[in-house]
Amino acid sequence: MDKGQMGTSMKKNRLGTSELMVGEIGLGCMSLGTELKPAVELIHEALDLGVNLLDTADLYDAGRNEEIVGQAIKGRRDQVILATKVGNRRIPGKEGWSWDPSKAYIKQAVHESLKRLQTDYIDLYQLHGGTLDDPIAETIEAFEELKKEGLIRYYGISSIRPNVIREYVEKSSIVSVMNQYSVVDRRAEEEVLPLLEQKEISIIARGPVASGVLAASGTAKADKGYLDYTPEQLHHIRQGLAGLVTDDRSMAQTAIRYALAQPAVAAVVPGASSRTQLLHNIAAASSAPLTPAEIQVIREQSPANRYTQHR
């Protein structure tokens, strides 16, 4: 994948074989909250610091998150690679969200997202989940038609399931897979990352700091466990990461660099709910990449977990 420079410090990677060049640190917008002014200010600061990938979803805060992103990118649309997601719908009278990957719903939902985002096109439209029971051919047809209509530039899926990812790799022209990937969630290393690297499809890694477990201040979060890890295992992993901290690379930034060390990973999209968090995440772009020896140390401290379902 082509790699270049963004500004003076933010590296850009090509998303799959697309024309989209994304800064390696994006912004996961889900954590921004529902108040317009502080959320817009955070997005503006991110853009000013070289972030260009903004990831949202119609699901987040029942559409409010897309509305906030839409307000924030007014007058700056050309600076943004805008990614959103589809597949969860509200049915009147029914509590919660219902999964609907049908062609009819996707083609209806895109117009609602475009309206909230105040734009006439989406750079990356992602299926927000999925199973093998879905009408996959119909879902792909919907995305392909939206491309032809110029409403989206490219499409991808957000999934952690190897069996679903394989289906889309084989049958569609996805350019990316959003996948949870971190030092303590290495499941993608077994099958997903090698497959996507071979097929020139990019990973957008979410959760690189594991909900704060891998941040310097994450001791209390580690005490609660994470995935199949016990608190004791997490504290051991945190000690290993702490040993790799340098003057210009914190524990959280080391965790972000671990995800970015994978060739298939084009970008990570950590969330931020405060300016401090945002600045810390973005600073990982100018921190030193991990050496092969450092990556080896992390892997020795953090045994690779495996998928047991959805293989």
From TrEMBL:
GO molecular function, one term: oxidoreductase activity
Pfam family, one: Aldo_ket_red
Matches recorded under InterPro entries: AKR, AKR2_Oxidoreductase, NAD(P)_OxRdtase_dom_sf, NADP_OxRdtase_dom
Listed transmembrane segments: none
Domain of life (superkingdom): Bacteria
Domain NADP-dependent oxidoreductase: 24-300
PANTHER family per the UniProt record, alphabetical: D-THREO-ALDOSE 1-DEHYDROGENASE, NADP-DEPENDENT OXIDOREDUCTASE DOMAIN-CONTAINING PROTEIN
Name the record gives this protein: Predicted oxidoreductase
The species this protein was found in: Paenibacillus polysaccharolyticus
